[in-house]
Amino acid sequence: LEQALNLATGLNLKTNNPRAVLEEVLKLTGGQPFLTQKICRLLSGGDLISQGAESEAVENIIKNIVEYWDSDKQDSPVHFRTIYRRILDSKNSNKLRNICHQLFNNGKIPIDKTPEQLEFRYTGLVTRRGNYLEFFNPIYQRIFNENIIPEADGAPSIFIERSEQQESFKQVLDSLLNSQSLDNCPQIFLP
Questions:
Q1: Per-residue pLDDT tens for 36-77?
Q2: What whole-number distance in Å separates Cα of residue 71 and Cα of residue 175?
Q3: Phi-psi region of 103 (alpha: psi -120 to 50; beta: other; left: phi over 0)
């Protein structure tokens, strides 16, 4: 807490008790520097925080971050999407996803020092506590849940994702090629 107190100076204009707000932030970020700064910045740009409402104010910011973690607005500069892509784009994606799902199911997993577990630690998603790996903080645990990280299925998800996009494109292209008139052609809008 003492090392992060300088972050509380930005909260002085929003609350009479910046230390209490910072304590709530640190409880949910686990002290992860980037995330702690991000939440403090969002709080300092938000509404006034009344005495006794520190926990609620922080939780409201966290709920918004968790719900919209993959949007440009919430993940700028990119942080959560980087962790996500490290897991899904890895050549060991299936093994990393298995590790993730073990964490979802058990809350922690024993350290086994395999190359995949070491790679998983490099994502920043977990930390070592004793002889176990656990989610670095409750925010990561809420974002990177079993609904976000797909179970391992034998094919790296980046290929699945691209394959679905290619299939969709093929359907549109087939429809265009088989149409006799432009009236029956699907509309294509490119960014």
A1: 888 988 888 888 888 888 899 999 999 998 998 888 776 777
A2: 32
A3: alpha
Judge whether 116 and 99 are in contact, CB under 8 Å. Answer: yes
pTM, entire model: 0.72
What pLDDT digit, counting tens, does each position of 102-144 carry? 998 999 999 998 999 999 999 999 999 999 999 999 999 999 8
Question: Distance (Å, rounded) from C-alpha 189 to C-alpha 143?
Answer: 31
CA 126 to chain centre: 12
166: its two tokens: 């290619």
Rounded (10°) CA dihedral 156, 158, 159, 165 = 150
Residue 165 main-chain phi, psi, to 5 deg: -65, -40
Q: What share of the chain is helix, strand, coil (3-state, %, to 5)?
A: 60, 5, 35
| Alpha-carbon gap, residue 81 to 83, rounded angstroms | 5
The string of DSSP letters for 146-169 reads TTTSPPP-SS-HHHHHHHHHHHHH
